[in-house]
Amino acid sequence: MYRKKISLILVVFFWGMAQGCWAQFSVGGELGVALPFGSLSNLVNTGFGGQGHASYYLNKNFSLGLGVGYYTFSGNEQTNSFEQYKANITPIVVKANYYFSQADFQPFVGLDAGFYRLASRFQVANTTQVLGESYWGLSPSVGLLVDTSHHLKLLGNIKYNYIASDIESTDFLTIHLGAIYVFSPDKNK
To answer: How many CB atoms lie within 10 A of CB 113?
Structure first.
């Protein structure tokens, strides 16, 4: 019930923000490293992965979108008693970004909210176990877009990923580099 209420609040909020849209659309992707914190860092080492996303610009300073990512981690052999431990995290999120400028260098802040699928695979006494569950999570971010042409922009960002899981702390920091392609209806925008 809690998830339905939060989802309804987000839909109403984003619908209200969508009134008077600017009609610009973008798709993109980013790759980077994932640095685990807290209890997660006791289980896994630094991970790698990325995210693909599509965004709709409501005006020159605000965009909403959807994103899907995948991050994979190897087991931390010093504190993990399992053989061949591997974990992955798959975020499926709604994205909101606010851009401070329309110049060639565009700093921005963002927030991703959605579901994070945590899966782990480990071996105990020659038996492979696979576990997985989905949790609610948030990822505030700061970043920079750099115009390279009318449609192509380079992207760099840092995200703090918080996942409300059963583990004491399932937080990780991601540092990404990527690109987006902007489908603009007007060549002057």
So the answer is: 17
Beta carbons within 8 Å of 127's beta carbon, 6+ residues apart: none
Rounded to whole angstroms, how far apart are CA atoms 189 and 184? 7
Query: Please, are residues 136 and 162 in contact by the beta-carbon 8 Å criterion?
Result: no
91 exposed, middle or buried (CB, 10 Å; 0-12, 13-18, 19+)? buried
- What confidence tens digit (pLDDT) does each residue in 7-65 have? 666 665 555 555 555 568 999 999 999 998 877 777 778 899 999 999 999 888 999 99
Cα distance from N-terminal residue to C-terminal residue, the chain: 42
Max Cα separation, the chain?
64
d(CA 5, CA 75): 36
pTM of the predicted protein model: 0.79
Exposed / middle / buried, residue 117 (Cβ in 10 Å: 0-12, 13-18, 19+) = middle
Indicate left, alpha or beta for 16 from its phi (over 0: left) and psi (-120 to 50: alpha).
alpha
User: Which residue has tokens 């989905």?
Assistant: 134
